[in-house]
Write a structure and sequence with these properties.
Blueprint: E1 2-7, E2 12-19, E3 23-31, H1 33-37, H2 44-66, E4 75-81, H3 85-102, E5 106-110, H4 111-122, E6 130-135, E7 140-147, E8 150-156, H5 162-173, H6 179-187, H7 211-226, H8 233-258, E9 263-267, H9 274-286, E10 290-292, H10 303-315
Parallel strand pairs: 1-4, 4-5, 6-9, 9-10
Antiparallel strand pairs: 1-2, 2-3, 6-7, 7-8
Helix pairs in contact: 2-3, 4-10, 5-6, 5-7, 5-8, 6-8, 8-9
């Protein structure tokens, strides 16, 4: 079964052709990072306009690279929630029109489910049940993956997501957007014990809170500057990254242990962070857990992961009509369309 998948939830316009949920025939991503870098973050209106300009070309390129035409695909999958609603609407409406004109099934895919599914493309024998840590610019979730289409959220951020905290802390340190990659690079030459940073507590032990940590970094920089001293940016980056990775790893491993889970996975844009990959791998080895991490190419937003999850949504009978809408927010546990 060949699925044409479309992703436009934020600032990447992406399309892919996925065969039988596991084989990536083609994958194309048009990024807008350089333009949004001028503003220090994603500008929703600009993102929506660029999706409108790029989507036809990206979809055509994905089909060409797969060596097929739109008529040859068996279904159209599209990311419909959560994300920037204007950006999502571009992909959703394009997918609806294409599915209607070709008389093909339309498969709605929750964006976070897509991130989780990226591991299926990377690891051929990987399958539920398992525990997954989803960490991106907008999401930080601990998810009990019971089946390909059944999920239970055990913990989530109560304020900023980890990726958002990386970007905001990076801006305060003087790094350009997106900040995560610059903090990761700077941390490699810094002293991760030079500055003491807090680990905020949450009522639910598996929830996350990064707002206070981000504020602590900003205050530390301001106080240091007011004293006429120079901040060691690389060491602050190392301390910040270490603290975030410890928070994520400690809570995630604790959730896995309490649920007697020996198989864990990492997903989302922040899954590309070398500190998090290392910390989680070390913790998994310590506790005798089998860990699955996607390659860097499948960590960020892409349509291949949407096509992969779309296959399993289709098998479960989750098909949408032409009244499918886009949603800025939607719980992972209760997907509606």
């Amino acid at each position: 079964m060949d699925i044409l998948a479309i992703e436009s939830s934020c600032d990447e316009t992406a399309a892919a052709v996925i065969r039988d949920g596991r084989e990536m025939i083609s994958s194309v991503v048009a990024t807008q990072i350089e333009e949004h870098r001028l503003y220090g973050g994603v500008v929703p209106e600009i993102a929506s306009r660029r999706h409108c300009e790029s989507i036809c070309g990206v979809v055509n390129e994905a089909l060409e690279k797969a060596g097929i035409t739109a008529n040859d695909v068996d279904a159209i999958a599209v990311s419909f929630a959560p994300g920037l609603v204007g950006a999502l609407l571009v992909g959703v409406n394009f997918a609806k029109g294409l599915a209607f004109s070709l008389n093909k099934p339309l498969i709605p895919v929750h964006h976070i489910r897509g991130h989780i599914a990226a591991n299926y493309l990377a690891h051929s024998g990987f399958e539920p049940p398992y525990m997954c840590l989803v960490v991106s610019g907008s999401h930080s979730h601990i998810v009990n993956v019971k089946s390909y289409t059944e999920f239970e959220t055990l913990g989530r951020t109560i304020d900023d997501a980890a990726g958002e905290a990386f970007d905001k802390a990076a801006r305060a340190m003087g790094f350009p957007y997106p900040g995560g990659i610059f903090i990761d690079s700077a941390s490699k030459t810094g002293d991760s014990s030079k500055y003491k940073l807090p680990k905020p507590h949450t009522p639910n032990p598996y929830d996350f809170s990064f707002s206070g940590l981000k504020t602590a970094v900003i205050n530390l920089i301001h106080n240091t500057e007011q004293r006429g001293e120079e901040i060691d940016v690389n060491s602050l980056a190392a301390c910040f990254q270490k603290t975030v990775c410890e928070m994520l790893t400690e809570k995630f491993i604790a959730a896995a242990l309490e649920n007697n889970c020996k198989k864990i996975a990492l997903a989302g844009g922040v899954a590309a962070n070398s500190g998090l990959r290392g910390a989680l791998s070390a913790a998994a080895e310590k506790h005798g857990m089998e860990i699955f991490i996607p390659p860097l190419s499948l960590c960020g937003d892409n349509a291949a992961m949407i096509g992969c999850q779309g296959y399993y949504e289709f098998k479960a009978g989750n098909i949408a009509g032409t009244d499918l809408n886009a949603y800025a927010t939607m719980s992972l546990d209760e997907v509606r369309f």
